Amino acid sequence: MNVPSAAPELFTWEFATDPYPAYAWLRQHSPVHWTKLPSGVEAWLVTRYSDAREALADSRLSKNPEHHAEDAGGKSKTGIPGERSANLMTHLLNIDPPDHTRLRRLVSKAFTPRRIAEFAPRVQQLTDDLIDGFASRGEADLIHDFAFPLPIYAICDLLGVPREDQDDLRDWAGMMIRHGGGQRGGVARSVKRIRAYLAELIHRKRDGLGEDLISGLIRASDHGEHLTENEAAAMCFVLLFAGFETTINLIGNGVHTLIRHPQERARLQESIQRGERALLDSGVEELLRYDGPVELATWRFATEPLVIGQQRIAPGDPVLVVLAAANRDPARFAGPDTVDLNRRDNQHLGYGHGIHYCLGAPLARLEGRMALETLLRRLPDLQLAVDPDDLRWRGGLIMRGLRDLPVRFSAV
Ligand code: HEM
Predict the structure, then answer these.
(1) A Pfam family in this protein (predicted)?
(2) Which residue segments constitute the domains of the chain, with CATH numbers given?
(3) What is the model's pTM?
(4) What is the three-state SS of the chain?
(5) Atom number in ligand 1 closest to CA 92
(6) Cβ pair 282, 288 in contact under 8 A
(7) pLDDT digits (tens, 9 = 90+) for 92-131
(8) At what angle do helices 361-378 and 245-260 cross, to 10 degrees?
């Protein structure tokens, strides 16, 4: 990889296509870097692994946007979905202890590893149904036809959203991410619709609790405390939006990386044919490290003066931890720009670290594994249908993913 010789320009089209050379420069020359984001907000970018890991677990960095120095009058420009909608403020990614501790404990009682394990056959069926939808065509856009619908149907099923409503949620969630790059009005409208729908659904479920996750959330109690209806709606909302674009990108970026690294892909395909699991498991982790869905962890704000690396951070300053840069830090990973699906000692930060560590990681791993395994098994000669340079990456701040992924394969 060619590391630029001078300070690179960030957030350009070239940067969105391949941010890694710029991150290598930042890690070397300005590891905690003050920059102006495309929205006009200024923030610190933290790019070294050791600083990133520390910052993610630092309780002096708050998740509450009210700590943003520029937040005067409640007009934050951070673009956190739902942040200014009072009803959705109480979600996990926007709050600190003790509220965070209480809510996370409650949701963990419903969102259990057992529930996810029992959900595996449904994810397999969804995966197969979606592939059935395009397998005979010999070509597809893997984002539109596969990676986009899979996680939204999966989380809807898990939550207990009736099948007849799932396409509405898919469309609203789609609008939320398509409008991500600056059109706040579109995002706000979609957030409002989703919020109203979830509130109504939760209300309805109270009259007849079932086995689904929403019923589990309503039932969950901690020392006699339950989630309020607002908290339950905010929780469902965060499960929907935190697990949606991330999983799309896990599949999209993952397939892209595999296609671009044919030797590693062949190795994985052979191991899948032999019915083995180990390389698939370590491989999904390596794909998350190498080109993961979450480029920057969500916003944090200093509540008091602190030092990251050797940089002084003032109270009220926003801090963005660049997971994608930390995960390629040569001080932590041997050969960080190489894909090694069998990599050992792979404590990447793709799911974050500390108290906000991804709640949905078991579900994401399940979906990622099944999606990649099934695609490679059923469409073994899957190839890009366009020149790699013509692929378009989304330009959003937090997430890293492709807009589309045109592929071709032998029709089956
Ligand atoms: C938090 C990554 C899938 C739900 C996070 C964080 C990261 C992350 C980096 C921490 C953000 C921060 O500290 O600022 C990912 C990746 C995924 C994925 C890479 C897919 C490959 C999911 C899924 C769900 C989910 C499928 C749920 C259905 C959550 C929730 C949080 C979270 C609720 C907030 C946890 C808290 O604040 O306590 N995720 N995520 N994620 N994720 Fe995921």
Answers:
(1) p450
(2) 13-408 (1.10.630.10)
(3) 0.94
(4) CCCCCCCCCCCCHHHHHCCHHHHHHHHHHCCEEEEECCCCCEEEEECCHHHHHHHHCCCCEECCHHHCCCCHHHCCCCCCCCCCCHHHCCCHHHCCCCHHHHHHHHHHHHCCHHHHHHCHHHHHHHHHHHHHHHHHHCEEEHHHHHHCHHHHHHHHHHHCCCHHHHHHHHHHHHHHHHCCCCCHHHHHHHHHHHHHHHHHHHHHHCCCCCCCHHHHHHHCCECCECCCHHHHHHHHHHHHHHCCHHHHHHHHHHHHHHHHCHHHHHHHHHHHHCCCCHHHHHHHHHHHHHHCCECCCCCEEECCCEEECCEEECCCCEEEECHHHHCCCCCCCCCCCCCCCCCCCCCCCCCCCHHHCCCCHHHHHHHHHHHHHHHHHHCCCCEECCCHHHCCECCCCCECCECCCEEECCCC
(5) 37
(6) no
(7) 998 999 999 999 999 998 999 999 999 999 999 999 999 9
(8) 40
Residue identifier of the C-alpha nearest atom 11 of ligand 1: 297
Closest ligand 1 atom, residue 91 Cα: 37
Ligand 1 pocket, mutate which of 80, 358, 369 (most atoms under 8 A from CB): 358
119-171: per-residue pLDDT in tens? 999 999 999 999 999 999 999 999 999 999 999 999 999 999 999 999 999 99
Token pair, residue 193, equals: 């619709």
Best mutation site among 349, 351, 363, 399 for ligand 1 pocket (most ligand atoms within 8 Å of CB): 351
